[in-house]
Amino acid sequence: MSATVVARSETLPALAFDVEKIRADFPILREKVRGHELVYLDNAATSQKPQAVIDAIVEYYETGNANIHRGVHFLSEKATEDFEQARQTVQRLVNAADASEIVFVRGTTEGINLVAQSYGGSNVGAGDEVVITAMEHHSNIVPWQMLCEQKGARLRVAPMNDRGELLLDEYEKLLSERTKLAAISHVSNALGTINPVKRMIAVAHAKGIPVLVDGAQAVPHLAVDVQDLDADFYAFSAHKMYGPTGVGAVYGKKALLEAMPPYQGGGDMISSVTFEKTTWNKVPHKFEAGTPDMAGVIGWRAAVEYMNRVGVARIAAHEHELLEYATQMVGALPGVRIVGTAKEKASVLSFVIEDVHPHDIGTILDQEGIAVRTGHHCAQPVMERFGIPATVRASFAMYNTREEVDALAHGIRKVREVFA
């Protein structure tokens, strides 16, 4: 760790968890929507950005814009240093053993595709199996379907119960000598279920099976330690944790990354190129072909630092209290059914209203300035499992309040009045 990184982190004061002061750091929350105060409850899709993140991106473009890893001039060296310090910041966030285990990608989706095509392409063959779960986002389904089609392998799916909890005994039964990898979500984006991924990883490892974890919905809301989990791969995105869109990371154990072939070819991922042969750069650069989103990565660093100042544990506690309050308030409304009632949940409240399509609910709530997500949430198999076409999803972040939950409940009452 460079002295610059230590000095920067030491100069950032801790923030007391005062939700109103936190809200003041997010400029968009001062916006009005259709004449109402904005109530933003679509955080599972993307979170809003604090001024510190916006400022970091602007500062990069105003004072430090240059390509990285290639130049010997001042701006290139400064951009490279800032970029690699951001990698160290993300490393510490998830407690990776080494910064080289953090590969920057466009987001969780690209991270999963990287592992599917690079690790999966090298280790999955005809007759082999990949195990996923019934609550996966499409991003943790489709890449494995594509791989299985390419290789003549089989995709197996671990089921869940009516509460939206995985049936762990059934998951374990699916793991066999044919299983070459398990890919599981840490937190369901459609249901909010927190899966016991540490136990699931241990069960797979006992049979020699590596595990990828989709952490897109976990890292913004939970303290994640990839070494404690013993995850082989862990993918996550910046934009769901107060950072910019279009950037994310996949963590991989160094030995696995070193053994994997590159995912894409181009500049910076090479050691040498001739017309006869190309040799690869060391990890993580082997997987980072082309010019990356430098501004996005530097903005992500500011987002992580902001979360650290507030405190991940305090963010989680605040969001859990909001989720419990919302579950009580919304669940008590007539005609409302909550979808996903697992004992362990994070941040997400999905529901339906009897005889009202979720898109109509979302439209009426929007008229009240309330932003929720409606649809299948890129989790169509989850909707099929519960026998519904879609849900309304309210999802919470550190800046949401009880008053906003009250506004949601009031909006739902209005929906009932319209469709009475």
Rounded to the nearest angstrom, the radius of gyration is: 22 Å
Q: Tell how many strands the DSSP assignment holds.
A: 17
If you average the pLDDT, what whole number results? 95
Number of self-contained structural domains? 2
Beta percentage is: 15-25%
Helix content: 40-55%
The CATH superfamily title of the largest domain: Type I PLP-dependent aspartate aminotransferase-like (Major domain)
Number of helices: 15
- How far do the termini sit from each other? 62 Å
* CATH topology (level 3) name of the largest domain: Aspartate Aminotransferase, domain 2
Describe the sheet with the most strands: 7 strands, mixed
Globular, elongated, flat, extended or rod-shaped: what is the shape?
globular
CATH class of the largest domain: Alpha Beta
CATH architecture of the largest domain: 3-Layer(aba) Sandwich
Strand order of the largest sheet: 4-10-9-8-7-5-6
Low-confidence stretches: 1-10
Query: Based on helices, strands and strand pairing, what is the structural class?
Result: alpha/beta
Features of the shown structure:
single chain, 420 residues, Aspartate Aminotransferase, domain 2, 7-stranded mixed β-sheet, disordered N terminus, 2 domains, alpha/beta, Aspartate Aminotransferase, domain 1, 4-stranded antiparallel β-sheet
Can you put this structure into words, describing what you see?
With about 425 residues, the protein is of the alpha/beta class. It folds into 2 domains: about 75-305, Aspartate Aminotransferase, domain 2 (3-Layer(aba) Sandwich), CATH 3.40.640; about 310-420, Aspartate Aminotransferase, domain 1. The chain contains 15 helices and 17 strands. It has helices at about 5-10, 20-25, 50-65, 75-95, 110-125, 140-150, 170-175, 195-205, 225-230, 255-260, 295-310, 310-330, 360-365, 380-385, 400-420; strands at about 30-35, 35, 40, 100-105, 130-135, 155-160, 180-185, 210-215, 235, 250, 270-275, 280, 335-340, 350-355, 370, 375, 390-395. It has a 7-stranded mixed beta sheet with strand order 4-10-9-8-7-5-6, with helices on both faces. The protein has a 4-stranded antiparallel beta sheet with strand order 13-14-17-16, covered by helices on one side. Strands 1-2 form a two-stranded antiparallel sheet. Residues about 1-10 have low confidence and may be disordered.
